[in-house]
Amino acid sequence: MSKRVTRNWHVPRGSEMTELDKKVLGFQNRGCLVPKRELIKTPEQIEGIRRSGEINTGVLDLVEKEIRAGMSTADIDKLVYDYTTAHGAIPAPLNYEGFPKSVCTSINEVVCHGIPNENEILCEGDIINVDVSTIYEGYFSDASRMFIIGQTSPEKERLVRVTKECLEIGMQAAKPWGFLGEVGKAIERHARKNGYSVVRELCGHGVGLAFHEDPEVDHYNTHKQGMLLVPGMVFTIEPMINMGERYVFIDEADGWTVVTEDELPSAQWEHTFVVTESGLEILTH
Ligand code: MF3
Ligand code: CO
């Protein structure tokens, strides 16, 4: 049987072949999965995504300053909406595929995509992921952090810390002219070593000119090489790590909220990155 090669990289008719084109085509001709040429951002586009990321970081810094026990997740949503719009930007989640709020707020056993609600009150000991995505002058950025409300258990504290390490280790595993499969491999190794599991149903993603672009970024070991990492690609890494088993379900009541099957806690950290000649650079610092 002949192996099917996806020929993503096309040099537009009439445009001259660059050194980059030659290099990528070399990989493609050897059967590697390469990105579409359109996924490579120009320096101007990268600067646009970086400016979007600066507002996104401002939102997360504000939430970090204000978040406390007794606050509702709807209060967080209001902080996000007000800050974002005051800076001339748009919260990307708002009305995205019907999502009703400006931010995702995911507490304890909620893995991701929790919907802010005025009746949901933060309690001492909760761990919460606040996932913020911003559109500014047409450019998208996406990042999330965990927050611990007051004092929590050593178990939950360790989950939050190890999940952050998973993001950092995933970032370090991504090398220009290396392959995306290394990211998930490194993340899963670290999660397992700590007795945790990795959610498979949700992934990181290309981002920048749209909320979700190619490639899909798996956070577990797929045993595949994955896509070639070419300087100028922009994507998120956003591992969801479970204290217990990896299995999750979607709450039927709202069609969004992703929850762990065993109801044990889950954590997530996320950044938007650009591939440079030396590694990944964070655009959501
Ligand atoms: N911010 C999420 C991500 O990291 C996407 C959430 S979609 C939404 O990809 F509609 F729930 F906001
Ligand atoms: Co994302």
Report the helical percentage. Answer: 25-40%
Count of all domains: 1
- Under CATH, the topology can be stated as Creatine Amidinohydrolase
Got a strand count? 15
The small molecules bound here are: 2-amino-4-trifluoromethylsulfanyl-butyric acid, cobalt (II) ion
Annotation field: number of helices:
5
Kindly estimate the percentage of residues that lie in beta strands according to DSSP: 15-25%
Structural class call reads alpha+beta
The major β-sheet equals: 4 strands, antiparallel
Poorly predicted ranges: none
CATH superfamily: Creatinase/methionine aminopeptidase superfamily
Along the chain, the helix and strand elements come as HHHEEEEEHHEEEEEEEEEE
Give me the Rg, rounded.
19 Å
Concise structural overview:
This protein is α+β, with helices and mostly antiparallel strands and 285 residues long. The protein has helices at residues 19-29, 43-66, 73-86, 154-173, 181-193, and strands at 90-91, 104-107, 110-112, 127-136, 139-148, 197-198, 204-206, 213-217, 234-237, 240-242, 248-250, 258-260, 266-268, 271-275, 280-282.
Explained architecture:
This protein is an alpha+beta fold. It is built from 5 helices and 15 strands. The chain has helices at residues 19-29, 43-66, 73-86, 154-173, 181-193; strands at residues 90-91, 104-107, 110-112, 127-136, 139-148, 197-198, 204-206, 213-217, 234-237, 240-242, 248-250, 258-260, 266-268, 271-275, 280-282. It starts with 18 loop residues before the first helix and ends with a strand. The mean pLDDT is 98. Bound molecules: 2-amino-4-trifluoromethylsulfanyl-butyric acid and cobalt (II) ion (CO). The site of 2-amino-4-trifluoromethylsulfanyl-butyric acid has 11 residues, from β4. 2-amino-4-trifluoromethylsulfanyl-butyric acid binds at residues 93, 96-97, 99, 104, 113, 131, 133, 142, 238, 270.
